[in-house]
Amino acid sequence: MLDMxxxxxxxxxxxxxxxxFSEIDLLKKTEHYIKRIGQMQDAMMAEQKKGILVVxxxxxxxxxxxxxxxxxxxxxxxxxxxxxxxxxxxxxxxHDFLWRIHSKVPGKGKIxxxxxxxxxxxxxxxxxxLANDQILEKRLxxxxxxESLLRNNNIIVLKFYLHISQDExxxxxxxxxxxQKKFWKFSKKDIHESKLWAKYMEAYEIIFKKCPGWNIIPxxxxxxxxxxxxxxxxxxxxxxxxxxxxxxxx
Length: 250
What we know:
Layout: H1 23-47, E1 51-58, H2 64-71, E2 80-84, H3 90-93, H4 99-102, E3 111-115, H5 120-127, H6 133-152, E4 155-163, H7 166-178, H8 188-194, H9 197-210, E5 214-218, H10 222-240
Parallel strand pairs: 1-3, 1-4, 2-3, 4-5
Helix pairs in contact: 1-10, 2-10, 5-6, 5-9
């Protein structure tokens, strides 16, 4: 069962990369990966055999928007769709929790990015006690079956958790409040949710344990975050060996 009462979160993974690294080197490599992702996506769109779903999860201010803006900047806009999942509408709430998700999955030839995803339907109910353990356990099973269905239909699922420290989150919140161009992103709700940090870490631990396939990305440094995510996506696409259709011979 999901009950983790009286247990301290075990999510003690680093939020910064181990060892020293050159930001200039990271930027160069990231730009290379971004360019290659764009090139391979063109071939993927022409081939029409596979699609890619990129799931981005993380605490507020973890860099999900920044990741989308940077990592996918080299892609033809016609080959990518980005969707964010907010609080369910009345119509969405009347259906099963995956109903609104499935219609946003990319088709073959396209990359789809979920900036927050179906995992919110585990996180929010768990943290705010809106559903019991039995319901959440069933949802985790449904999610695994859903992602298996996608893979069985040639949709590659890449899941990234952008792992930041609570101190880094506070620094980013402060910057948002002082920066006119970023202040619109700030909400008093963010502060409230930050106070529930330990509970969110419990929820993520459950998700990582029950739903395999996560890439946990140290994200206190945005350059390293972008490098790791672009590298992972690029290497995954290389393995697919996307090919343009052969031309007709005269």
